[in-house]
Amino acid sequence: MSSHNVDRVSLVFCIFFAQAYALLPPPCDSEIYCTGELLRRVQTAKLFNDDKHFVDMKLLASPDVVLEAFHNLTFGVQNQTITSSILKDFLTRFFDAPGKEFETWTPADWHEQPQFLSKIKDPKLYNWAVDLHRLWKSLGRKITMDVKDHPELYSQIYTPNPVIVPGGRFRELYYWDSYWIINGLLLSEMTDTAQGMINNFLYLVDRYGFVPNGGRIYYERRSQPPFLTVMVRDYFRATKDINFLKKAVPALEREYNFWMQNRSIIVEVDGNKHILNHYNVQIGQPRPESYTDDLDLAEHMSEVEKERLFVELKAGAESGWDFSSRWFGGNKDSNNATLKDIYTSSFVPTDLNALMCLNEHTLAQFHHELGNDAAAQHYSKAYNNRLKAVEAVLWNSEKGVWFDYSLQTNSSNFAFYPSNLAPLWAHCFNHSDMQLRAFEYLKDSGALNYPHGVPTSLHNSGEQWDMPNAWSPLQQMLIQAP
Ligand SMILES: *[C@@H]1O[C@H](CO)[C@@H](O)[C@H](O)[C@H]1NC(C)=O
Ligand SMILES: *[C@@H]1O[C@H](CO)[C@@H](O)[C@H](O)[C@H]1NC(C)=O
Ligand SMILES: *[C@@H]1O[C@H](CO)[C@@H](O)[C@H](O)[C@H]1NC(C)=O
Ligand SMILES: *[C@@H]1O[C@H](CO)[C@@H](O)[C@H](O)[C@H]1NC(C)=O
Ligand SMILES: *[C@@H]1O[C@H](CO)[C@@H](O)[C@H](O)[C@H]1NC(C)=O
Ligand SMILES: *[C@@H]1O[C@H](CO)[C@@H](O)[C@H](O)[C@H]1NC(C)=O
């Protein structure tokens, strides 16, 4: 082949890939925190143990100045590596260490002896509960006013009220984690802190139209399992605060509409069409906070395959199960599929649809409580449609349980996950024998034979949402199932 031909071939490929690439927006528009050459250079230089470190650093000058200085630094060295020490000097001049966006904050509604403690008789459990209750004081964070006044200097998203954070590398608020945090706060009689956290989520829905994965701009184009309506339900049960309910409902409906407009899919089974939900994040490029993990995984892939991978990894993060063999698809055998074979958006998940079902039922109840009969009817109808769809697509009458449905194979994924029982927890079933059969399934699965909790799956893939890990949200959903 002549060099002339090579050029033409590569030109055609370039145009094709450039178009495929250009279709998808980056995780956020920041050319420092979400996309661009500075992010790429710093992350691939691996200056820190965790890629999250850099994208949590505060800017010491405006983004324009930092980007111009970086342009000056790289001018004329486009395709040479910039040494780590030059990059480090650059970061020292223009960035401050992570954590500058928070003040320590002790919740004012914390008190020594909430009622639940006095009900615990076992001394070992009692002491453990006391320790847990004390944790609220060390995990409270308040965002500084500077984040509100100068958002361009931070990746932190401003929210008006203090929060309880998960801790460790997770130094900001997270969406579905907060459901269990809020339940704990209610048990600890800390309703003000709980209300503040819920108000933050309502504020985020107001700003984004949905709740982002967490409190950073690099999470702002993906969500997490939609627990906000259930947070409000639990808060309302604890406080009977009808004015708060009235105030919250419009944001809950807006979030619901986001999931129905942007995360739904039509599934055809036996000639009948059903509307169900899936995780789906049409956003390109590596996740900024795990940049080199994503880039390394994509090594040797074509540009089109890379983009597919980046999309599906983000959908996996949106599911909360990042990552799990549960989302492995494609045409590989489940035993030799790896994270490269992630196809999250091709699955119709049992737990997401159970949660949407619970949201529909709960929104109907809220409207009923508030005297909005027409709106209550609307959500009751949605709930009834969901019951039908969950039964038709996810319920397996032979095995007596619900399974994720694969849109690649048009069939169920028969593997065991605690999420197979999520419709029980969410009361999203219409026949009492389903409850009995699902419990039989759980016993027969062998998953109850592990002394330290029900494992996330029975397949040891090396991913953290798989065997042998047992995650507390999944235990709680199983325990609370009727
Ligand atoms: C970048 O270089 C130009 C030209 O040398 C200079 O005027 C400008 O101040 C530099 N900008 C920064 C932020 O260092
Ligand atoms: C380096 O970049 C220049 C233009 O920026 C380009 O012409 C040249 O081919 C590049 N060299 C390599 C080795 O990629
Ligand atoms: C949802 O999808 C619509 C297009 O169907 C789009 O205009 C809108 O921006 C999306 N909403 C969000 C919050 O991503
Ligand atoms: C995957 O594993 C199956 C056996 O479970 C084997 O037959 C197949 O060849 C393997 N495929 C690859 C690509 O390794
Ligand atoms: C639920 O079951 C009842 C009685 O079996 C039936 O009347 C109703 O139509 C069912 N609803 C759905 C959504 O299947
Ligand atoms: C799955 O079903 C869809 C539509 O019902 C169809 O277009 C597709 O070809 C089917 N795929 C397989 C693998 O059967």
TrEMBL record:
Protein name: Trehalase
Name of the top EC class for this enzyme: hydrolase
Family indicated by similarity: Belongs to the glycosyl hydrolase 37 family.
BP terms from Gene Ontology: trehalose catabolic process
Annotated organism of origin: Alosa alosa (allis shad)
Catalytic activity annotation: alpha,alpha-trehalose + H2O = alpha-D-glucose + beta-D-glucose
Keywords assigned: Glycosidase, Hydrolase, Signal
Signal peptide: 1-22
UniProt EC number: 3.2.1.28
A GO MF label: alpha,alpha-trehalase activity
Record-linked InterPro entries: 6-hairpin_glycosidase_sf, 6hp_glycosidase-like_sf, Glyco_hydro_37, Glyco_hydro_37_CS
